[in-house]
Amino acid sequence: CHHVTGECSCPPGWTGPDCAHPCSSGRWGRGCANSCACDGSDGGCDPATGACSCEPGFTGERCQ
């Protein structure tokens, strides 16, 4: 928590006033500020790292 405001500083992949909510689908990173860059995926990626979650039949860093 911030020493003056008491506001939580969430780790990558988490958001909310108490950091209890994962990033919404398609978002990742600190403050959920990054968009997933995945092609043949279910539209999602790891909320902390941005690693793509590929659908069956797709492989590669971006499920291309």
Automatic annotation (TrEMBL):
Signal sequence region: none
Domain of life: Eukaryota
GO molecular-function terms, A-Z: scavenger receptor activity
InterPro entries, A to Z: EGF, LE_dom, MEGF10/SREC1/2-like
Laminin EGF-like domain span: 36-64
Keyword DNA damage: no
Keywords: Disulfide bond, EGF-like domain, Laminin EGF-like domain
Residue intervals of the EGF-like domain: 1-20
Disulphide bonds in the chain: C10-C19, C54-C63
Keyword Disulfide bond: yes
Xref: PANTHER family: EGF-LIKE DOMAIN-CONTAINING PROTEIN, SCAVENGER RECEPTOR CLASS F
Protein's name according to its UniProt entry: MEG10 protein
Natural source organism: Origma solitaria
